[in-house]
Amino acid sequence: MSSEASILHADLDAFYASVEQRDDPRLRGRPVIVGGGVVLAASYEAKACGVRTAMGGRMARALCPQAIVVPPRMGAYSAASKAVFDVFRDTTPLVEGLSIDEAFLDVGGLRKVSGSPADIAAGLRVAVRERVGLAITVGVARTKFLAKVASGVAKPDGLLVVEPGRELEFLHELPVERLWGVGTVTSAKLRARRIVTVGQVARLGEAYLVSVLGQHAGRHLHALAHNHDPRPVVVGRRRRSMGAQRALGRGPHTGADLQAALAGLVDRVGRRMRKASRAGRTVTLRLRFDDYTRATRSHTLTRPTSATAVLLEAARELLAAASPLIAERGITLIGVAVGNLDSQGEQLMLPLDGPDEGGLDSALDAVRERFGSAAVTRGTLLGRGEGFTVPLLPD
């Protein structure tokens, strides 16, 4: 561990909603909800009323009837993300993107050039505000884990530096939910045993945590409660998967609705894979149900591909296998990801393999690149809103 707190966790505040407020002055200072059927994002004014991401739109409007509901504009969010990541890379070459709106930055060794890590973090916040027009919160610490915790505590629009030597004093006063990996289920298990702070977790033996939470989770939380996190900031890590998802809202949803949503998602993912010259073998279907539970189903192909037809066939088989769960629980979100990605060379197809799907995909990609993504679409998607999320990391 470095002797200096030099790892920054930079996290944009209420990202989607903030972009909407930036671009439309009428929305500033007012509660904003992005997405109608399911809340994709909420401004802090809406969060103050109890609105949360992934909440059903009807419930969100009941909690905050004065909220302004706007449709998602994924192109605007992607452009804003790219502009913010440009600021990150102008600050330091050591940038590790976590998602479209957050990243770790290592500023160790820049003191003589750019000042202390605290000064660099303050300058980063000013630069994002001036160049992109958005508020960003930054946490600074010696470990990635603690930097992320610090940014969470400092939100919104804040800056918090955890000084070396005071890490455990800061960390142990926080609720257990601040630990990475402590979600609703783990939190309930710990609180049922009157374990409510990180300090209490730290005072427990690893063996006890393993007995309560399982081997992986028990060891993980024991390490984090003592601020043990040796991971460096990693630059240039290639994506292990590419995916997209669509919020559907509460049903009912017909089989045709789900098939149309699935086809649109696979089109989107396949196009991104081909643009990045990647091919994948594992197709994963992700579902979220009316009761907020989730399920995933996956299938591994015999060879890597980015062909839309092949990926769609695999995804349809997974959806068919999951249909009993969907009928029982209802569905509010569907997602598709392709993993085990490899660099893609030219894929040659034997004459007996069937039509040249690769040539068709390339032709459609060229049309969409020139005239826009809506220039060519499937007949099943006509008249249906998309509402896709953007990629997890900026392209």
UniProtKB/TrEMBL annotation:
<keyword id="KW-0227">DNA damage</keyword>
<comment type="similarity">
    <text>Belongs to the DNA polymerase type-Y family.</text>
</comment>
<dbReference type="Pfam" id="PF00817">
    <property type="entry name" value="IMS"/>
</dbReference>
<dbReference type="InterPro" id="IPR001126">
    <property type="entry name" value="UmuC"/>
</dbReference>
<dbReference type="InterPro" id="IPR036775">
    <property type="entry name" value="DNA_pol_Y-fam_lit_finger_sf"/>
</dbReference>
<keyword id="KW-0239">DNA-directed DNA polymerase</keyword>
<dbReference type="InterPro" id="IPR050116">
    <property type="entry name" value="DNA_polymerase-Y"/>
</dbReference>
<comment type="subunit">
    <text>Monomer.</text>
</comment>
<feature type="site" description="Substrate discrimination">
    <location>
        <position position="16"/>
    </location>
</feature>
<keyword id="KW-0548">Nucleotidyltransferase</keyword>
<feature type="domain" description="UmuC">
    <location>
        <begin position="7"/>
        <end position="183"/>
    </location>
</feature>
<feature type="active site">
    <location>
        <position position="102"/>
    </location>
</feature>
<dbReference type="Pfam" id="PF11799">
    <property type="entry name" value="IMS_C"/>
</dbReference>
<keyword id="KW-0235">DNA replication</keyword>
<keyword id="KW-0808">Transferase</keyword>
<dbReference type="InterPro" id="IPR043502">
    <property type="entry name" value="DNA/RNA_pol_sf"/>
</dbReference>
<dbReference type="InterPro" id="IPR017961">
    <property type="entry name" value="DNA_pol_Y-fam_little_finger"/>
</dbReference>
<keyword id="KW-0460">Magnesium</keyword>
<comment type="function">
    <text>Poorly processive, error-prone DNA polymerase involved in untargeted mutagenesis. Copies undamaged DNA at stalled replication forks, which arise in vivo from mismatched or misaligned primer ends. These misaligned primers can be extended by PolIV. Exhibits no 3'-5' exonuclease (proofreading) activity. May be involved in translesional synthesis, in conjunction with the beta clamp from PolIII.</text>
</comment>
<keyword id="KW-0515">Mutator protein</keyword>
<protein>
    <recommendedName>
        <fullName>DNA polymerase IV</fullName>
        <ecNumber>2.7.7.7</ecNumber>
    </recommendedName>
</protein>
<keyword id="KW-0963">Cytoplasm</keyword>
<dbReference type="InterPro" id="IPR022880">
    <property type="entry name" value="DNApol_IV"/>
</dbReference>
<dbReference type="InterPro" id="IPR043128">
    <property type="entry name" value="Rev_trsase/Diguanyl_cyclase"/>
</dbReference>
<feature type="binding site">
    <location>
        <position position="11"/>
    </location>
    <ligand>
        <name>Mg(2+)</name>
    </ligand>
</feature>
<keyword id="KW-0234">DNA repair</keyword>
<keyword id="KW-0238">DNA-binding</keyword>
<feature type="binding site">
    <location>
        <position position="101"/>
    </location>
    <ligand>
        <name>Mg(2+)</name>
    </ligand>
</feature>
<keyword id="KW-0479">Metal-binding</keyword>
